[in-house]
Amino acid sequence: MGYKQEVTALSHKVAPAPTTALCLAAAFTTLLDQSSLNTAVPALRDSLGAGAGSVQWIIAGYSLTFGLALVPAGRLGDAHGRKWLFIGGITLFCLAAILAGTAQEAWVVAVARLLQGVGAGTVNPQVLGIFQEMFTGRERTRALGAYALVGGIAGVIGPLVGGVLIDTAGWRYVLLLNVPFGLITIPLAIRYFPQSAGINRTTLDLPGLTLLGAATLSVLLPFTVPGTGWLLATTPALIAGLIIWERRYRGTPILLPALIRERGFRNGTLIAMFQFGSSLASSLAITLYLQEGLGWSPLHAALTVLPSALGFAVFSAVGWRILGRYGRRSVQWALVVAFVTIVATALIVQFVPEAHLGLALAVTQLVNGAAGGVIISPNQALTLAYAPLEAAGLAAALLQQAQRVAATIGTAAVTGVVLASLGRDSLTYGLAICAAMLAAAVFVAARPVGPAPALPARAPLDRPAARPR
User: What parts of the sequence cross the membrane (predicted)?
Assistant: First the structure.
């Protein structure tokens, strides 16, 4: 059976419409939490007496465990199927949200956010992996665009609903906001999510995962835990140990050679990392400054950053069309636009009077969100096109892990800078960090890459792949 015929048969076997809907529901559930949390941080901080360190853990801890869970979850999904990992991840995410929403101490919220990160990090490789297996080419880009669009809708709803809830009911309801959506998704997933048998039944490479996790922690903890800066000195040794082990490992290594040697995958992962970290950090910096520095209400601050989510949602819906017409250049130029927009935002913060600040920031946020809509799902499609199908979940996990590393470092660093004085200068310094990340993304995007390799045929999701002899 040819590749296109197999894709068609596969689509019928796994009922793509219900499966896609469940994947989009998972995206909405996890991203609604992320978009609404920023508005709740100041109220949570006052209510629980949380210090700057606790706030950094609450914000950055989610990305930390999200990133650590991605690779093992992606590998397990490739090897043993995605259904119960998907369901288990959503369940853990919702239970942790209930814990956070009912917490009486800031450290409990921080622990709950760590658990939520594990849940979200378990779900997301299954979503992107199933898209890799169900779709190809233009259809895959459209599916990823729909995933990004749902995230944009969550970004629109989250800050608005969060602002209203804080003003009327309290910050706890913001942390519980995603629970009803998760509780609806879980039983539907039990009924409709495909029971795949796994495509690549390999060993989990526990030593490789341990070394990768330790290297990731050695980079992330110094930005979230005071007094752990010494861990950065261990990073080169851990990375060297990981490379040596992966070269000698007789099974399927975590650093899959077919992925690592593809410049298109490496460059696309770096672009995703820098852009994602900059986007989350800049939005958080602006929200914290408007609420805590200028004393704006949560709803007022949410309305100021709302255009970013609107622009992202609109352009995510058409990003696949733009990619189809202009190709990789559309991502490159969108990155340039995002960089210019961040620089313009920093200048606005410095020189525009407070009376006009909200409108000026709304304009730059709209442009920045639109640029993100042209970047994220098209870049994901371009990057994952270089991944072999037997490692679809692993490739998606490595891509997202890079994003979460940047998000953890970016949000922790920017939060510390902004909260240091809550003045215009501190916000400008925070935005400068975001601009530097985007400048790096522009540099990487300018480097040429070769064409993506042709994809091989694959085993259907509803029957196990042949075991290697």
Answer: 54-72, 84-101, 143-165, 171-190, 227-245, 270-290, 302-323, 330-351, 405-422, 429-446
